[in-house]
Amino acid sequence: MNGTCPSGELCQFHDGICDVFPSCNHEVPVCTGCTVSQFCGPDCKCYSVNDELPDLVIDKDRFAESLLIEEVNFDTFTCAYHEQCISGTGVRKLLRFDTTTINQGVANLRLGDPTRHPEEYAFSQCHNHYHFSGYAAYRLLDESGSLLARGHKQGYCMEDSNRQNFLVGPYVPCTGVTTCEEPGISAGWTDTYGNSIDCQWIDITGLPDGEYWLEMELNVERRFLETTTENNGAALHVLIEGDEISILPDVSAA
Are the C-beta atoms of 26 and 45 separated by less than 8 Å? Predict the structure, then answer.
């Protein structure tokens, strides 16, 4: 694709045509035309107060079990450098972990075709695919609660990875439905980004040994509607000693 779009227009990836897409402040959405039985969702669309919705939570056990520390050498040609997942080049010390999202709601989460939603996705020239903005954020805090380092989920391929046996009902599909081309998470299913994937980490290079809080939060920019966002976080109290990490007894929700 060549050229640029006029001010106020975005390029539709699938055909290269410039078009106007509605803007929305997801934190303070504004809707028009909602009735008394509807409410304004974070995507600036009207929803019925009786609508069944998805509900995303973090698989805390997998979060904890997947923790590891690794040193990796990066240069300026790596995608992690260009996408700001590391704080510098050379040998970096990374705290890696899985991000497994459970949709425990009674409705499917559907994000739509990335090629038709330039207002929600950015095309990564390095990875050669689209990235959905504001899906998951990672933070490392000291014992006083001060932010020391942060990270983010870098990718868009949110899809049905595993079916949850404890979530059953006619609304839970028996087989996975979503794909990288039509991303989302079906009701009763999970999406997993493993700790071997780029940016599934926080760069802790130069951080001294000690006790910290590792936090994860989903739907950070409130771009899609859920039953609630009060359960979107998880926190682990961790001890870092060299290249070893352990979980301290105090584990709570963020």
Answer: no
State the burial class of residue 125 (Cβ atoms within 10 Å of its Cβ: 0-12, 13-18, 19+): exposed
Measured CA to CA, the distance from residue 163 to residue 152 in angstroms comes to: 25
Cα 8 to its chain centre, rounded Å, is 27
Q: Is 79 helix (H, G, I), strand (E, B) or coil?
A: helix
Q: Which domains does the chain have, with CATH numbers?
A: 1-50 (no CATH), 52-249 (2.60.40.2360)
Q: In whole angstroms, how large is the CA radius of gyration of the chain?
A: 19
Query: pTM of the prediction?
Result: 0.85
**Residue-level pLDDT, tens digit, the chain, 254 residues:** 456 888 878 777 767 778 888 788 988 999 999 999 999 999 899 999 999 999 999 999 999 999 999 999 999 999 888 888 999 999 999 999 999 999 999 999 988 777 777 777 777 677 666 777 778 999 999 999 999 999 987 666 788 999 988 777 788 888 888 887 888 999 999 999 999 988 999 999 999 999 999 999 999 989 889 999 999 999 999 999 999 999 998 745 44
Among candidates 137, 147, 159, 166, which has minimal Cα distance to 58? 137
Name the one residue in this structure whose structure tokens are 């240069």. Answer: 75
CA–CA separation, 219 and 137 (whole Å): 8
